[in-house]
Design brief:
With about 300 residues, this protein is mostly helical. Belongs to the ARV1 family.
């Protein structure tokens, strides 16, 4: 009788979820019993693990921790299973999250770029903040568009083109670890964001790190300053599309003067996070996801250089 009272009742909705470990489809994420207050997580029939353990996380900070740790299952949870019991509910939730996270990412990125910028009055700073925010928006839209093009060219079959609607949400989720670290380093490595004329002191670092950071900083500065070593014509032509060659005032706002934020965070942490995120979205390997992002970044640089003269 007890077993009969606990008879399993699966959700009869035709909407499918996805196992965060093996990507297999599951009909429901919860096992429902006759007692409405008694539920448990579904076990995936393909891999034998809980289909989506993230459903039991009490705090969203745990999801952020998994994003920082570059775990693929958290992206499957956020992109496939989160937001409602039906696909329509999840689509509405994903659209709302895209706008919310997009506003957060753009606001923090703009604030970090404007951090330490010298202006004569508060109104000038607000005007600079607004213009920089608009430039960040243009940059973001350009990159998202280029990711869609690169995905279609490199890896995405026509049957999966509907997944491209999740490109903005995927990008913003992947940007959260970078935004978090940028906000922290803008305080720790404050000199990187201050005008060069006022950077008279080096940030306090443990003595054993000083030689390492000094060499990294010198290497980064020499990279941004360019080199006098003769290069083949094709290399010089490709290098001309480097972001360092953008000359509009808005493109140079907040350009980091050291290695920490630009080289380590935006490229290393941001790159790895994006590779993991888009490998989940595009249902492909991390190597192919990296190729998609590389092609998208090259297209993005071409777009930035095309619009740069109009922003001068």
């Amino acid at each position: 009788m007890a077993d009969a009272a606990r008879a399993v009742v699966h959700d009869s909705s035709p909407e499918q979820y996805e196992c965060v470990h093996c990507s297999a489809e599951v009909p429901s994420l919860f096992v429902k019993y006759s007692d409405p207050g008694n539920t448990s997580l579904v076990q995936c029939a393909s891999c034998g693990q809980l289909a989506d353990v993230h459903q039991s996380f009490p705090l969203e900070v745990l999801l952020l921790l998994d994003l920082v740790l570059l775990k693929s299952p958290v992206y499957r949870h956020l992109l496939r299973n989160r937001g409602g019991a039906t696909a329509q509910d999840r689509h509405k939730y994903q659209l709302a999250q895209s706008f919310k996270l997009g506003a957060l990412v753009l606001a923090v990125d703009t604030l970090v770029r404007c951090f330490g910028t010298e202006t004569a009055t508060e109104s000038e700073f607000l005007a600079l903040f607004a213009k920089t925010g608009a430039y960040c928006l243009v940059e973001t839209l350009s990159f998202l568009f280029c990711v869609c093009i690169a995905a279609v060219i490199v890896t995405l079959p026509r049957s999966c083109w509907h997944d491209l609607r999740l490109v903005p949400l995927t990008y913003f989720y992947a940007s959260l670890p970078v935004v978090l670290f940028l906000a922290i380093t803008s305080v720790i490595w404050r000199d990187e964001y201050l005008p060069s004329s006022s950077s008279t002191s080096s940030p306090a670092l443990p003595p054993f790190l000083a030689p390492i950071t000094t060499r990294l900083d010198a290497l980064y500065r020499s990279h941004r300053a360019g080199t006098s070593t003769p290069q083949p014509a094709i290399v010089r032509y490709a290098a001309s599309f480097s972001r360092a060659n953008l000359r509009s005032p808005l493109a140079e706002v907040g350009s980091a003067r050291g290695w920490a934020s630009e080289a380590v965070l935006r490229k290393w942490v941001g790159g790895q996070s994006a590779v993991v995120a888009f490998s989940v979205l595009l249902r492909t390997s991390k190597a192919r996801s990296a190729v998609v992002l590389l092609v998208a970044w090259l297209l993005h640089l071409v777009v930035l250089h095309a619009i740069d003269p109009f922003l001068s």
